[in-house]
Specification:
Alpha-1-antitrypsin, domain 1, alpha+beta, six-stranded mixed β-sheet, Antithrombin, Chain I, domain 2, single chain, 399 residues
Length: 399
């Protein structure tokens, strides 16, 4: 994937800022929102242009090219599908320069028949995400002049699958979560970073393609935003990680134990990991966080804010994202559909050999980042609070 480091940093920075604004278990994709904001910034004017440029993290006159670069890079990643869609009323005339920057096949028409248009938008969302997102997250009304949407779907199979086991957890003591366990001799898959909010344990779960998932467990008391922000800082190199083979004996990080074990014969070191499976979805109203996404001025329907898109005065009437993520024994999958709608708007016997065993347990709420391994672009992020139940347990018996 060829995406400039500046663009990757800008998208990941939006991930970190968004993480600081979410609450509770959730999943979201800044990589799904960012190209839409960048394209809007290119066509905006006045205060809306400045706010969108600030949210995107680069000058507005550079944002459209960066959005196209990002979308092209996503399309080149194996096991990642991405798409951009634009629908306008027949009576809305677009600026040729702005429209030319979008794929020709992306442009559709809003007929004015709300049921038919809704069906067409939902069909696009489902098709582009392999059925993971069934509805386009947009408030479609008679006043809707334009819908700009992105779809992102990713999947990966683990290089080494987990075994499914019942998990015992003091935090989830009212249920039996579906635990995932596996062992490895590769201690560099685990590490600890000292971050401004506290120590964070990072586990890298590698996929067969270039998509990996990093699990992040912070110190008790750290917020979801602190842990996710720390994960982005680790990717950016701002928070160095001490790898497993260099960790001291004892409990060097959250959920971690490092022990020296005597054995009867030489054995390689061991990393024993237990985490939980999760299957989660969320829907986000981006206008509720309008300052974060640079949409404060653009919401004002008493004026037009996008002269570079159309001479017709436009304002943002709705902006939402639907997301889903599943982490299981064999792999990971996630999807996001984001849509922006514009409306009119003026101890043992003596033994000879010693080996190191690192034990990691993710048995309370933790964060995850799904990312492209080589560029370190974060594709999806989330905070896990509700693991899947162990299948042999009737969930109702534990309520």
């Amino acid at each position: 994937m060829r995406v400039g480091r500046g663009t990757v940093r800008a998208v990941n920075a939006l991930t970190a800022r968004w993480a600081g604004a979410v609450d509770g278990g959730t999943v979201f994709s800044a990589a799904g929102v960012w190209p839409l904001l960048a394209l809007l910034a290119d066509g905006a004017g006045g205060a809306a242009r400045a706010e969108l440029a600030d949210a995107v993290g680069m000058p507005a006159d550079q944002s459209a090219a960066a959005a196209r670069e990002l979308l092209g890079g996503l399309a080149a990643i194996r096991d990642v599908d991405s798409a951009l869609g634009l629908w306008t009323k027949r009576t809305l005339e677009l600026r040729k320069a702005w429209a030319a920057g979008l794929p020709a096949e992306a442009h559709g028409v809003l007929t004015g028949d709300l049921d038919a248009d809704r069906t067409a938008l939902d069909t696009w969302a489902a098709k582009r995400t392999g059925g993971l997102i069934e509805r386009m997250p947009v408030a479609l009304t008679d006043d809707t002049q334009l819908v700009l949407a992105s779809a992102l779907a990713l999947r990966t199979e683990w290089l080494r699958p987990f075994d499914e086991v019942p998990m015992e957890s003091p935090y989830w003591s009212d249920r039996v979560p579906l635990g995932l366990r596996r062992s490895s001799a590769l201690l560099d898959r685990i590490g600890v970073a000292d971050t401004p909010g506290g120590h964070v344990t990072r586990l890298k779960v590698l996929g067969k393609s270039a998509v990996d998932v990093h699990l992040l467990l912070g110190e008790e008391g750290m917020t979801s935003g602190q842990v996710l922000g720390a994960g982005v800082g680790i990717l950016d190199g701002r928070h160095p990680v001490v790898p497993g083979e260099q960790l001291p004996y004892g409990e060097p990080g959250p959920g971690l134990s490092v022990a020296k074990e005597r054995r009867t014969r030489p054995q390689p070191p061991s990393l024993d990991v237990t985490t939980v499976a999760y299957d989660m979805s969320a829907r986000h109203d981006l206008l509720r966080l309008h300052r974060l996404f640079g949409l404060t001025a653009a919401r004002d329907a008493t004026d037009g804010h996008f002269p570079g898109i159309s001479l017709f005065p436009l304002a943002i009437g709705s902006a939402e994202q639907s997301t889903t993520a599943r982490f299981g024994a064999r792999g990971f999958r996630a999807a996001a559909v984001t849509a922006v709608a514009a409306v009119p708007g003026g101890a043992a016997p003596a033994l000879r050999y010693v080996s190191t065993t690192v034990t990691a347990r993710f048995d309370r709420p933790f964060a995850f980042l799904a990312l492209h391994r080589h560029s370190r672009l974060v594709l999806a992020a989330g905070w896990v609070t509700e693991p899947e139940p162990y299948p042999e347990q009737d969930e109702g018996d534990w309520g």
